[in-house]
Amino acid sequence: MRPILSAIALALVAAPAGADDPGSKAPKVELVTTHGSMVLELDPVKAPVTTENFLRYVRDGHYDGIIFHRVIPGFMIQGGGYEADYSERPTREPIENESQNGLSNERGTIAMARTSNPNSASAQFFINLVDNERLDGAPGRWGYAVFGRLTEGFDTLDKIGGVATGRGGPFPTDVPQAPVIIEKAHVIEAD
After folding, report:
1. What are phi and psi of 80, to 5 degrees?
2. Is the pTM of the predicted complex or chain greater than 0.85?
3. Domain annotation for the chain: domains and CATH numbers
4. Which of 72, 98, 68, 71 is nearest to 81 (CA)?
5. Could you give the angle at the alpha carbon of 32 between the alpha carbons of 27 and 34, nearest 5°?
6. pLDDT digits (tens, 9 = 90+) for 49-63
7. Is residue 119 within 8 Å of 96, Cβ to Cβ?
8. C-alpha span between 100 and 77 (Å, rounded)
């Protein structure tokens, strides 16, 4: 049985106009970084709560000026929570984990970062540099909720994935030694 809060949250998520129309376009978000741009196509059908959460943060300007604070070559790049001085930006309440949605942590997919608590994701996300199916949800096991995929900017993804890393701020490893900044995150309006 799903918690009542989940049902209410799902009822409050407004599906984009034409979401049931196979010809409608999924929402797209451009991340303009200091290393180039990436365009992400989100999946509001399979990950409605996560997609709406991410879009709210984008529209609120939350990601503008945020860094990718964790880069692990051959694994993923993570951002969405820290300023260049490593101060944490405030977030809204955590969302429901949608990792059982059938989407896989494949190269170029975007997923929510979280703590060991499966329902702790708020604003931080990661983009997979390689196929990471071990992060997928499975019956009896929580995973990391994929909610979209890169459609443009794999060169930018790989540039970020190849930066020099080490200690930075409160983090002992995996921090880019020169800040990798999301200068602007914005929704790309459909034609």
Report:
1. 110, 0
2. yes
3. 26-188 (2.40.100.10)
4. 68
5. 160
6. 999 999 999 999 999
7. yes
8. 22
